[in-house]
Amino acid sequence: MAEAHQAVGFQFTVRPDGIDLHLSREVLKHIYLSGVTSWRKRAIRFKNDILAGVYPASPSSWLFVVVAIMSSVYARIDPSMGMIDSIKATLPVSEFMTVQTQTWLSAVLFATALWLTLILLLRYTLKMLLSYHGWIFESHGKMSVSTRIWLVGRLPSRAIRGRGLVLSVCVCVCYLESVRPLLDDEQYTQMETVANEFKKDPAPKLQKFLKFKSWWAANYVSDWWEEYIYLRGRSPIMVNSNFYTMDLLYVTPTHRQAARAGNVVHAMLQYRRKLERGEHAPIKALGKVPMCSFQYERMFNTTRIPGIEKDLVQHLKDRKHLVVYHRGRFFKVWLYLGGRHLWPSELEMQFQRILNDTSAPQPGEMKLAALTAGNRIPWARARVKYFSEGVNKTSLEAIETASFFLTLDDEAHGYDAEKLRSLDLYAKSLLHGKCYDRWFDKSFTLVVYKNGKVGVNIEHSWADAPIMGHMWEYVLATDCFHLGYTEEGHSKGDINKGLMAPTKLQWDLPEACQEIIEGSYRLAKEIADDVDFHGCLFDDFGKGLIKRCRTSPDAFIQLALQLAHFRDKEEFCLTYEASMTRMFREGRTETVRSCTCESAAFARAMEDPNMSCEERLDLFRKAAEKHQNLYRLAMTGSGIDRHLFCLYIVSKRLQIDSPFLKQVLSEPWRLSTSQTPQQQLNLIDLQKFPKYVGAGGGFGPVADDGYGVSYIIVGEDLITFHISSKFSSPETDSYRFGQNIRQAMLDIRALFQLKEKKNVGPGDI
């Protein structure tokens, strides 16, 4: 077969008169091109490392400084104030050089030292400029003199500032304010007493340790957050940690499964190449301050490795294959040929070969991936015992070292307005699937359904949702508007039929290992079956109308969620909203405590028939402004939850018992919310192509008796809600909560409409 001949670089035959070599020119050509590509990548990385190392200067600026100093020396002017002569006197090789050579060399060394000093000075100045946060607290359309000066002095920059330290006293005050609407007077008094005791002791001692860490580390939160919140968790990561993102809502560019997989995988490889070369423009907060790109580094070639006490995030470079799962079988597919990516048409052919393969799974292979869906300790022990040698080790390494994981799903999913609960089933499939057809430990699993729809399941420890959203926007835009499909729905381009066929991974799984796999599957299946999901498309109005109300869309939605929850359970609860902190180096997230005294007063007013429209609207504006201020504080490093978390970690390491920290860290988030970012890249003009909108993504419920709500503001007239809870809780119902959210949104809009009819003041619709 052609594939067999191209798999080796040469063949030989032993004859009586010697050895006859038969070289394969095609394979040697591919080897040569692969080598060229590899060295080109190294050169690009070396160049990027130099540019990053001397930032905000450039290598050419060094030459400018050297020429300027040399010119001064030539003109018999000493800009170094005697330092060049001092360097010349201490040169260890001065006796082997002429006086003129010593002078020139000393001048170059002085110029280099001056250049490095200027770089450090510029970096410090830039750090101070990025420490200014006044701009984010100013009203829309207004700008203070200090902010104008800051905008002039601000350079195109990178996130180089470490996260600042919050004072523990301020944290306690803000915490007590956040729990006031949740506690009665007696409970609040008790909590206030505990907090005041904590402020006296041991808060000052714990704060000193954190202050020391903030001086030493790039970010005093992120490493502990990754380790203790994600990697030390021993419960299943499926549903509990992993999250998902969906395909375009209304458009499916092709219904051919292999073709869609070919285009999407090729677009991902293009994105990875740009990522490796540093060609992606940095994302800026509100278009002003660059955000840290640290999390992007582990998007590809990354796997979470299970351990007994904690897991490990393994990140590799230059992975040139992926592993595909289809109908219980695992296949290894090479992504490169002769130093280039496979074309979409070539990838389509490879994936079609897998779809056409009718071989049966090997014993235990069908549900093997359930190990990644169950508890971490059994998986860690099984990995050491059954996957440390032989074919099992080789096959597992192929999965864990792959660029990413691909599932060619044998089901059809996607949003269909004519099918009941189509979005619900689509979300559940992406979140947990069959519990054994996604490799939940990979940085992400690309899922391609048999009807051409796609989606992604993402492991959470390595990054947060906006990072994956950035790549996903690029992939969908590239797939639809740059790569495209033929009239028959196939990927475009020529086909090299001589490509080596995908390799089926081999397994030797004994009965004892299969029992562990089955145990993990049963646990995962129980978790998956308990997920109550509802997808709600709210198209009555969107961002456009909310902005005409002179209100932040996020604050509007968060207050609607508070009102909906109050109607759903007739009480308020601790509410989590994720806010990014990527304006700081290696920043991840901070918590916005959305349930405030102001939001509670507004929700009660909406249920009080004696309250007038004007009174309700006034309370709404106060609550919205409060929420916006909390969000700004979180973004600028003044939130309280990550600091409380770090204080707790220090207390545990010092073996200091703190009733206050125990209470804070044990409180359940019964309403966990997050906004999925949209249009980070603006590659699709939604005015011109209104149907090419994403459906967003979601996550599982955080509390057993609570709700998880992810929402995405799509364009000007659509908001999608992804609502999750547990069937096992008699207090929750995702569909009911979705209807409450819809009604709350409409009721808040009605406040502005009633005001407009009465023609009262500014801010009308």
TrEMBL record:
Domain Choline/carnitine acyltransferase stretches: 174-743
Protein's membrane topology: Multi-pass membrane protein
Main location: mitochondrion
Pathway listed: Lipid metabolism; fatty acid beta-oxidation
Signal peptide: none
Enzyme class of the recorded protein, top EC level: transferase
Gene Ontology cellular component terms for the protein in this record: mitochondrial outer membrane
Localisation per UniProt entry: Mitochondrion outer membrane
Transmembrane segments: 50-75, 104-122
Gene Ontology BP term (one): long-chain fatty acid transport
All copies of domain Carnitine O-palmitoyltransferase N-terminal, residue ranges: 1-47
InterPro entries (alphabetical): Carn_acyl_trans (IPR000542), CAT-like_dom_sf (IPR023213), Cho/carn_acyl_trans (IPR039551), Cho/carn_acyl_trans_2 (IPR042231), CPT_N (IPR032476)
Keywords: Acyltransferase, Fatty acid metabolism, Lipid metabolism, Membrane, Mitochondrion, Mitochondrion outer membrane, Transferase, Transmembrane, Transmembrane helix, Transport
PROSITE patterns given in the database record: ACYLTRANSF_C_2
Keyword Magnesium: no
One Gene Ontology MF term: carnitine O-palmitoyltransferase activity
Catalytic site: H460
Catalytic activity field: (R)-carnitine + hexadecanoyl-CoA = O-hexadecanoyl-(R)-carnitine + CoA
PANTHER family, per the entry: CARNITINE O-ACYLTRANSFERASE, CARNITINE O-PALMITOYLTRANSFERASE 1, MUSCLE ISOFORM
Family: Belongs to the carnitine/choline acetyltransferase family.
Function: Catalyzes the transfer of the acyl group of long-chain fatty acid-CoA conjugates onto carnitine, an essential step for the mitochondrial uptake of long-chain fatty acids and their subsequent beta-oxidation in the mitochondrion.
The protein's name in its UniProt record: Carnitine O-palmitoyltransferase 1, muscle isoform
Protein's organism: Denticeps clupeoides
Gene responsible for this protein: CPT1B
